[in-house]
Each structure stands twice: as C-alpha cells, then as structure tokens.
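Data availability (excerpt). The following record was deposited with the supplementary files.
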Amino acid sequence: MRILIIEDDDRIAKPLAEDLKHQHHAVDVASDGIEGWEYAEAGNYDLILLDLMLPRLDGITLCKRLRAANCNAFILMLTARDTTPDKITGLDAGADDYLVKPFELEELAARIRALSRRSPETHQLILIHGDLQLDPNNCHVTYASKPLSLTHKEYMILECFLKNPTQVLTRSAILDKLWEFDKLSGEETVKTHMTNLRKKLRAVGSSEDFIETVYGFGYRLCPKISAKLADV
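Predicted structure:
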C-alpha cells in the first residue's frame, strides 16, 4: 500500500514510518495539516494515518476536506482523545477507523489489514505468474519452489507487476507508485532495481524475458507466461 502519515510528533511518526516500510509499504510523512493536504492532493494514497491534533489545520477539518475532494483513501485517525463523542466526531468527519494513543504497532498493523480487506483490490491473494509465487500475507516469494530473497524495493516492484500482469509500466509510473516524495530518485534508480531483480530471477531459473522490456514504453511481465491469481 501507499501510505501517508500526518503526525506532528516525530517520536510517533518516525518509528511508525520505519515499521510500515519494513512491511513493504511506500510511506510519506507530513508534520502538519496543511502539508498533509498538499501531499494528499499530489499523491494517490491507499491509506492516510491522520493525527487529530495537528498544527495549521486540525485532523477533523482536514478529514472533511479530503472527503469533500473525493479522496478515496482509507483514513485511520490517531488520537489521544478516547471518549465516545470524540470517536463519533472523527467517524462522522469521514474516517474509516479510530485508534487511541498510545497504541502497539501490532494493533495498528491489524487495523490496516482489516481496512485493506474492505477493498477487493487489496484482498490478500497469492500472486502467481508461471512458476513464480508471491504471498503478500508473509512477503514470501518463490520461483519453482525455490525461495527468492529480495530487497524492499525489488519486492515492491515485483508485486506491482504481478498485480498488473498485462500492463506495461513505465519507469515514471513505477516511481510514482513505489517511491516516497521525499526520496530524490530518478528513472535510472528504477533501471538499476530492474537489473538486479532480473538477475535474481535468472539465478533461480527464470527465463531471460520473464520481465521484458517494451522499448520506448517500459516493462511488463512476459505475456507468453500464463498469469493468474489463486485464493490463499
């Protein structure tokens, strides 16, 4: 998932962002409501973790503004306010869920999984393309039953292709989907990750063109290999 954290307390935002990145999410962090609004306008996020008490623009007002602008991302509010009226106010503003501080990262991860199950697009399926299998539930990848060890970004790139098995993905599209706004990465970075990913696939026995280059456009999974989704 692509996630935006809008939280002004670095003691919460930094460890939360690191934990989510370890779970193979692309994460951006905004430190106030106005900055959060600007990020949300510019990016296509799956989930927004929104603090209630924010400088410059409070969480309730921002949540209402996001929904008025037809923002379809899941919104999970993070706040120290735990009374029933506070929760009702947040949910009525357009939030999908409400988590009271302090919270355990494990509970937040469970809430995120619960939210993701509401969307058929993020239902956790084993992604299969020929002899390759990627299980998003445990981030485990195999080729012909051989485990494939990937870096964080290699995993995300491969998952992106498997979720879009017939689509040609340009380098700029991959950057937009998988890189955070605050990372100064160019298309050459994508090319390097693609080269490394292909080498690892070949090392476990894949064909040379498992991910093929469509010259002048980008990359795609080889259409000769049958792709399918299988329920866990």
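Summary of structural features: The chain has eight helices and twelve strands.
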